[in-house]
Amino acid sequence: MSKKYPRDLVGYGSKSKKINWPNNARIAVQIVLNYEEGAENCVLHGDKYSETFLSEIIGAQPIKGRHINMESLYEYGSRSGFWRLHKLFQEKKIPITIFGVAMALERNLEVCKAIKDADYEVASHGWRWIDYQNI
């Protein structure tokens, strides 16, 4: 292989960079909760097919029309999953970051209020699920 590879896969190598964390901590942990429900590919959003890539349905195939099984998986997150985790993080006083897809947040204002009231850090996870490769 004579041509230089365009990606850095080596980094610092065996000579790790010295990091000085507050209070001489040796590890930093960030808890992130993705909030995506309502922004996935779905014919209701004008997509040709419903979501097939990020799913618990192994080998999900595109179907014409609504994919009720897929929609149900995503709806669990917004209707129940978020609230179960939110309650736990609040009880334990654990600060978290929300990776929020804007379209999903726009569809559930009660979740937005809970995120704001909890003073969670919010990081943009894009407007919706589209291929951003060539944008």
Describe the structure.
This protein has 135 residues and is α/β, with parallel strands linked by helices. It has one domain. The protein is 28% helix and 9% strand. The protein contains three helices and three strands, in the order E-H-E-H-H-E. A three-stranded parallel beta sheet has the order 1-2-3. The protein starts with 31 loop residues before the first strand and ends in an 11-residue tail after the last strand.
Order of helices and strands: EHEHHE
**Number of extended strands:** 3
β-strand percent reads 5-15%
The percentage helix is 25-40%
Q: Kindly name the structural category.
A: alpha/beta
How many domains would you count in the coordinates? 1
Largest sheet: 3 strands, parallel
Strand order of the largest sheet: 1-2-3
Our Rg estimate from Cα atoms comes to 20 Å
Q: Can you tell me the residue ranges where pLDDT is under 50 for at least 5 consecutive residues?
A: none
Assembly annotation: single chain
Q: How widely separated are the two ends?
A: 32 Å
Instruction: Compute the number of helices.
Output: 3
**What global shape is seen?**
flat
Mean of pLDDT = 91
